[in-house]
Amino acid sequence: MKKHTICRLCSACCPVEVEIQEGRLARAERKYALPSGKRVQCPKLMAASDIVYSPERLKTPLIKKGNGFGDHFREASWDEALGLIADQFHHFKKKHGAPAVAWLRGMAADWGAPWDYATRLMHAFGSPNAIGNGSVCHVAREIAHNYTYGAMTLPQAKDARCIVVWGKNDRNTAPGTHEAIVYAREKGAKLIVIDPIRTPLAAVADIFLQIKPAHDGYLAMAMMHEIIGSGLYDKEFVEEFTVGFDDLKGAVQAYAPEKVAEATWLEPHAIKEAARLYATTGPACIIDGNGLDMQLQVFQATRAVCMLRALTGNLDRQGGDFIPQPVPVRNIQLKERLGSHCEPITSQYPLFNEFHSTWGLHAQSCLIDAIMEEKPYAIKMLVVQSGNPAVTMADSNRVRKALSKLDFMVSIDPFLTETGRFAHVVLPASSCFERTQLNRAYIRNSPVMLQDQVIEPLADSWPDWKITFELARRIGLEDEFPWQSAEEAIDWQLEPTGMTVQMLRENPAGLRADKLQFEKHRSKGFATPSGKVEFYSKRLQDAGHPPVPYMDGKMGNPISFCDSPHEDLWVGISGERTTPYTHTQFFQVPSLLKRDPEGFIDVHPLDAQARGISQGDALKVETPRGMVRLKARISDVVHPGSLRIAWGWGGIQREANVNNLTDDDLRDPVTSTPSSRSFMCRVEKVGKEGEASGKDS
Ligand SMILES: Nc1nc2c(c(=O)[nH]1)N[C@H]1C(S)=C(S)[C@@H](COP(=O)(O)OP(=O)(O)OC[C@H]3O[C@@H](n4cnc5c(=O)[nH]c(N)nc54)[C@H](O)[C@@H]3O)O[C@H]1N2
Ligand SMILES: Nc1nc2c(c(=O)[nH]1)N[C@H]1C(S)=C(S)[C@@H](COP(=O)(O)OP(=O)(O)OC[C@H]3O[C@@H](n4cnc5c(=O)[nH]c(N)nc54)[C@H](O)[C@@H]3O)O[C@H]1N2
Ligand code: SF4
Ligand SMILES: [Mo]
Q: Which one of 181, 376, 421, 636 is most buried, by most CB atoms within 10 A?
């Protein structure tokens, strides 16, 4: 039997068709959206049944025997485990006040309904501290789009004549978008790739700008310098639909390509060519990605990139960057329940806390501050749902200390992870194929598609919605969580749209809330205070941030540890997302491990030769925060002077965790983002081929 759903094994959220045999998931296949072209395979999806039926899946709740980090758990019933957790909620509320309890969400359960439920539970309980990890993911970019033109755009690569891929590697992270790029290329679209790594797409681009990590904002300013200086901007659009053009024009004066080139590792003529190609080949879209995130200037740099779209009149054009048409679902987060005096632990980042009605709080690093330094107050109890922060948050050594310091911790996860080992109770979550939910990717823009349950929950695992609802009721929130099924809750949330779960099931290709429409600004303006694209933002000015990006005319080095007294520093880059894995996930699946058995440190051949480093040598990389040991891979995809360090392996091998190296002290002033992507580091050869450390736990 075939069934339709959304895959949520990673955040690409691909629509898939699943083959069910005797109640079991046999195989799954991505639906292909284009008229023709080459399809990209996803190894994770191909291994979906190995993931879902992995013998390492948790089958029952676990309660720790004694205290401390480790694997010493006993099996427990849901009744006992939820009873214990609910008692702890009440205990900490009584002793320290409800805000002393926090809920931390990683990305895996999705940012649609599961995030709404967790946030609703916390708000109804009286704590503002439901915290997501968006400060290191795309939410940090989303606020920059939002402050520029009111929403995060969706690039229309399929119909573009010029595509700029800016810090994105869709081939590995979002196959549908990669297919659209390849399709447009076959129809003659030009391609510009901006990346410190020569990715396979960069290798075939018309222009490849191998930028110095974290320096994207200066490049965007230099491109605008060229576009404005040469009169290549869309004068009608700028005149009618933007504010602050003269301020922007003034700000870009300090960033002539000749001035910016050296600091960004680029050639002035290449910057100019890229700017001219983009500005003169419309419609053009910019696919911005996680290469801009996890950087100290994520907000201003992304805002500068966003301005390129407006300057060239590519906003909300077919083949340009589409302003989404969100689906008007009910906001169920109950934020109104919190008194105005109820300050969240992220209160240092008010713009990021408030910019969106349902994103909620994402200044993730503040959680560690609150546990370690009790600032602005102490967090004593933490629920971690669908995340592995012990590995994925910046400065892992500090995070591990913080998790050990908690009085009580819960992990909700299909597997026992590094983070789970810090927990007192571990609740077995069902996989994405075992539950029905409203997926955020499909409510932020029409059409809506349902992530539908296609198999029964494995063993005694529960879907996230059920865990949250039952826990809420144990805490005494029966009125707020009256729903007995996912369908009931979703129908309630969908009510303002006139859609129901049943209707979505009958229309697996999706239902539109309204008619597809481009150039909506002509009738409605943009969702900013001025109704226009804000090159100059008064809101930012009032909040004490630069109203125009980089208007101070300065050029710094926004990479952590750049002021280290050591000589011989290298630029470290947190590495590639390889296709078999999602962050720290799926390393327990033999078929995927076989495909990609090891993580490496990529060293440029010139650097390798100069240092006597050979393929397979054991390298030790160090920063003031810690060290990583992995084998060398000699590769000219990296720029000389930089190292790319494999991402994700820290979940099974502590010495392989890039976040041992990253810093959480310096942060973007608007989004709190640390530079988890780039850092200055030292490298040392510590052994010949084959001597790097093996797996530990
Ligand atoms: N240095 C560095 N740091 C990074 C990154 C980087 O590239 N470099 N990437 C950053 C980014 S973009 C992100 S999004 C974060 C990711 O950070 P995390 O969200 O912490 O990453 P994962 O390792 O994917 O952890 C997800 C966990 O959820 C579990 N899980 C899977 N499905 C479900 C489910 O349906 N329900 C529940 N309850 N649990 C589930 C998985 O088993 C896994 O343990 O890491 C960030 N940190
Ligand atoms: N297979 C797989 N797919 C995934 C995930 C996964 O872990 N594995 N994670 C999911 C998640 S949560 C996310 S957020 C997305 C992210 O997906 P993407 O946005 O594609 O992010 P990355 O692949 O981490 O990085 C994109 C590119 O940015 C480049 N880059 C690094 N530093 C810089 C820089 O300073 N400037 C510029 N311009 N580029 C830079 C990298 O070399 C890389 O080629 O992927 C999702 N999909
Ligand atoms: S890229 Fe693969 S794992 Fe990610 S959602 Fe799509 S099919 Fe699933
Ligand atoms: Mo992410």
A: 181
By C-alpha distance, which of 495, 422, 457 is closest to 59?
457
CB atoms within 10 A of CB 138: 20
Rounded to whole angstroms, the Cα distance separating 600 from 528 reads 45
Q: What is the pTM of this model?
A: 0.98
Q: Does residue 441 line the site of ligand 3, with CB under 6 A? A: no
The structural domains of the chain, ordered by start, are 62-136+345-446+456-480 (3.40.50.740), 153-323+522-542 (3.40.228.10), 570-687 (2.40.40.20)
For a ligand 2 pocket test, name from 137, 169, 308 the mutation site with the most ligand atoms within 8 angstroms of its C-beta: 169
Q: What is the pLDDT of residues 127-149, one digit of tens each?
A: 999 999 999 999 999 999 999 99
For the record, the structure tokens of 133 come out as: 């990890």
How crowded is residue 666: how many other Cβ atoms within 10 Å of its Cβ?
16
State the CB neighbour count (10 A cutoff) for residue 359: 21
- Which residue(s) pair with 448 in the sheet? 511
Q: What's the rounded Cα separation, in Å, for the pair 426 and 409?
A: 9
CB of 572 within 6 A of ligand 1: the answer is no
Neighbour-count burial of 56, counting CB atoms closer than 10 A to its CB (0-12 exposed, 13-18 middle, 19+ buried): exposed
Helix (H), strand (E) counts: the chain: 25, 26
Question: Over the stretch 260-286, which tens digit does the pLDDT of each residue have?
Answer: 999 999 999 999 999 999 999 999 999
Q: Is 264 in the pocket of ligand 2 (CB under 6 A)?
A: no
* Position 21 confidence tier, pLDDT thresholds 50, 70, 90: very high
Tell me the two tokens of residue 351. 């713009």
